[in-house]
Amino acid sequence: MKKLLKSKSLIFTSVLIVLYILISVLMFEGKLTRSQQAILLKMCSSIILAMSLNLVVGSLGELSLGHAGFFCVGAYAGGYFAVNANLPLPLVFVIALIIGGITGALFGFFISSTILRLRGDYLAIVTLAYGELIRSFVKIIPALGGTRGLIGVPSLGARGKQFLYMFAVVIVSFILISNFTRSRHGRAINSIRDNAIAAQSIGININRYKVMTFTISAFFAGMAGVVFAFFKSNLEPSDFTYNLSIEALLMVVFGGMGNLFGSVVAAAAITALPEILRDAEEYRLLIYAISLILLMIFTSNPKLVELRKRIMPKTLFAGRRKEGATDDNA
Fold it and tell me: Mind listing the pLDDT tens digit for each residue in 54-85?
């Protein structure tokens, strides 16, 4: 079963690389409009954010609504470095990614250490509060622009060049998270999700793995924030409200709980949908809401689930829970 999962990951990674090359060529040749290019760049940060949240919600089985906070501190930390650094832009981008990721991880470690005993709705409420607290904290720091926000994050160049850097981060993040979920630590985290009491009985330190998962997840959320900062250039506190956490959760749910492949596809679709409907004017939000409802029905209705399994690739839509159970039995 491990070989099967590994082959699926290799196939999906290969698909991402092919898309990376194809879209880059289209961008450099001017075949895409500016709005299409902007959607693709925004997708990069959304996909990384969805994959990071998938670690907590899908693999660990905990409900977190505070990932906008990790996204926020990563964006501001990496963006602040980029604004003040006097280095070549590619190097600035790489260092900013590391700074944003580490900053997010530090916040993730601190927050997860304080909420170890909470589960379910209580955990969701507290993480939501922490996310809003982080956003409010950023607003009162003068060095980060206060309520005005952080202005002047340098651009990586033309849209095609930006995509080269940003989607490369998506591919690297996918490979790292995929390998982590298949590792011994990833299987331990899945066992906690499936049966915490049984996991503890065989010597798995539940608290340590919870903190580890939140910290790693926050690291990638911080990196996603840096990608967003370089895309948007001017950061505002209003970019990081709890709506962002809800949207990231929708991506994970629609893609399949614990399904990393599905999170990538769902994040791309949900990010693109509002932009595609922009010309619909006053009907845009109504169509968007109806589309989300239909998508939720499609992913949860038992009869439609069976139909979906017959006509769609299992690689994209099969949940990790069954695969994890098969791994344990193997």
Answer: 999 988 888 888 899 999 999 999 999 999 98
Partners of 150 in the β-ladder: 235
Nearest-5° Cα angle at 43, 161 to 248: 150
Mean pLDDT of all residues in 161-179: 92
> What CA–CA distances, in Å, run from 152 to 39, 83, 93, 229?
21, 6, 14, 10
Structure tokens at 294: 């239909």
Q: Could you give the CA distance from residue 89 to residue 156 in angstroms, rounded to a whole number?
A: 6
Nearest Cα residue to 241 out of 107, 93, 66 = 66
Whole-angstrom distance, CA of residue 327 vs CA of residue 187: 9
DSSP 95-164: HHHHHHHHHHHHHHHHHHHH-TT--HHHHHHHHHHHHHHHHHHHHT-GGGTGGG-B--PPP-SSHHHHHH
Note the pTM of the prediction, 2 decimals. 0.84
Q: Which residue has the higher pLDDT, 255 or 179?
A: 179
All domains of the chain in start order, with CATH? 2-329 (1.10.3470)
